[in-house]
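Hello Y.,

Per our agreement to keep a running log of every chain we model this quarter, I'm adding this entry. I've kept the format consistent with earlier entries: sequence first, then predicted structure.
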Amino acid sequence: MTPSAELESVTMTVWHEQQHEPITWEMFLEIDEDIRRDMEVVDGYVVPREQRGRDHQKVGTRLSMALEQAAVEQIRRSGRAECYETNTEVDALLWDVPPTARKPDAVLHRCIPEFEQLAAEHVLIAAEVLSTWSGRRDRVHKMGDYADAGIPHYWLVAFDKVGALSIERYALTDGSHRYTHIATTHRDMGPVAVTATDPFPIEILWEHLEVAPRV
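Predicted structure for the entry above:
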């Protein structure tokens, strides 16, 4: 699907410019930050992001916090020889000519200086939270973009009112630019949501990904 077709397939966010040709990355960054927060750029064309409800955003935040805890533990194990950070909804520049940048719902990446642009080469895990409006984009468009950019791990997270419901994990293998399905876990399978050894040991419990208060 072309960027223009992708744009038409989602609910529009306000964008005041009529695009007749691709813009540069620098031009994208010149867009007002409040407007750009709800935009991505795909092959030089500005694309509105999907609608994101409160629970959707909470799940992304909980996942980022869980990944951050795993990253801190790895930093301590390495004696601070390794450094990792997590973020939510930050521009990850996948390639710059013509520019494509996505905003993962949660992202684990190598530490970078404060004012350096997050790029695909820094990213270890990109995660998207699925919703009614984002399923096709996350499973087709973003999955293809992240794989083409060489991001080694891609996670898809489904959720309900309680919190994360299932997690699908994909990885690049054999030097290809196509993701291989690694595992899918469901909340009814037990307390552990994720147990992984790559890019480093990660264990996340479903309770870490809950958004509703326990009663």
